[in-house]
Amino acid sequence: MRLGTSQRENALARALAARSAPYVDLTLSNPAAAGLPVAPVALPSAPVYEPHPLGLPGARAAVAAYQGVSPDRVILTASTSEAYSWLFKLLCAAGDEVLVPEPSYPLFGYLTALECVRAVPYPLRWDGEWRLDAGELPFSQRTRAVLVVSPGNPTGAYLKQDERAALASACRARGVALISDEVFADFPAFEDARRARSAALYDDVLAFSLSGLSKVAGLPQLKLGWMAAAGPGAGDAVGRLELIADTYLSVSTPVQLAAPGLLANRGVFQQAVRARLATNRAALAAARVGADPWDVLRAEGGWSEVLSIPRSRTEEEWALALLEAGVLVHPGYFFDFPSGAHLVVSLLPPPAEFARGVEVLARVLRA
């Protein structure tokens, strides 16, 4: 079995399943469940089926305009997860390796295993902000791609220009592709001139930029993602991806027909999200007083915040204590934080609910 046979619940999952009392969910990540406005959705009917493996021209043009690239470099998928799957098929043979950031969202291990590819972690370091050091990447003879998430989930760190240049140089020297997950790129917490642009806007290394309607427009239920290819060999890669896409034809016609309007009206959702993120970040900062033994590792963007917590309990023990008090958070080990002293909270809940949750969180963590 590619995924193994052990799928045991941890103590937090068991406690949550046994709980009957209400709680504040500070793990909410589904924008469709967060009470946020989105652009009106009216999927056109599609009485005639004329599949285009890379995507309908109008939809690809709309994505290309959003990305700032040529439509001939855009490939539509049903999700970013599917985009990863296709890229692993394109770039890797069974047993090959891709380098993945740590800490990060626990998705890459499953996606790589399903393609018989090995995920090899590389570290992100915190020294007041999260950093990637290209010199620390564990390249091997079987490395075929490096994955970056910009901004990271849950770290919220954007790839900086100097980091990207060093990473591109290292990848180019080894014939390795760069895969950049940019689903949260539209949600910076503040401006920073050091940030790299989308990976699709450089031409010094074969690269793929990934995103989709789930985060860009708050419409995960519509299942439309995309990737944009750039750099040496991008044209050939798109041609090979067309064969993969033609094998599956997974993207529905109605969502492709609706894509231009949904992207044009994404501001309805994005403005509401940015306002909520700012409000909840302020509430989280205000909940901590100077002597508290916990702190916020300030995110540069995205929808999450990482907390450093006392080592007097394990992450799981803190999470269980918080759930007992009526607040659900993620322990850091869920995202492979190495030190065992982190919690992760989502900034998506409605502000009044979020404020109640962080009040309880601060009280429990200072006890």
CATH superfamily of the largest domain: Type I PLP-dependent aspartate aminotransferase-like (Major domain)
- The assigned CATH architecture of the largest domain is 3-Layer(aba) Sandwich
Low-pLDDT segments? none
How do the strands of the widest beta sheet line up side by side?
2-9-8-7-6-3-4-5
The mean pLDDT is: 96
Strand residue content: 15-25%
Q: At the first level of CATH, what is the class of the largest domain?
A: Alpha Beta
Largest sheet: 8 strands, mixed
The level of helicity is: 25-40%
User: What is the CATH topology of the largest domain?
Assistant: Aspartate Aminotransferase, domain 2
Give the total of beta strands: 14
Q: So what's the overall shape?
A: globular
Number of helices: 11
Structural class: alpha/beta
What Rg do the Cα atoms give?
Answer: 21 Å
Domain count, please report it. 2
Span between termini: 45 Å
SSE order, as H and E? HEHEHEHEEEHEEHEHHHEEHEEEH
What do these coordinates show?
- This protein has 367 residues and is of the alpha/beta class.
- The chain is built from eleven helices and 14 strands.
- The strands form three sheets. The chain has an eight-stranded mixed sheet with strand order 2-9-8-7-6-3-4-5, with helices on both faces.
- A hairpin with a 3-residue loop joins strand 4 and strand 5.
- Helix 1 runs parallel beside helix 10, helix 2 (57-67) packs parallel to helix 8 and helix 3 (80-91) packs across helix 7.
- The protein is globular and about 60 Å long.
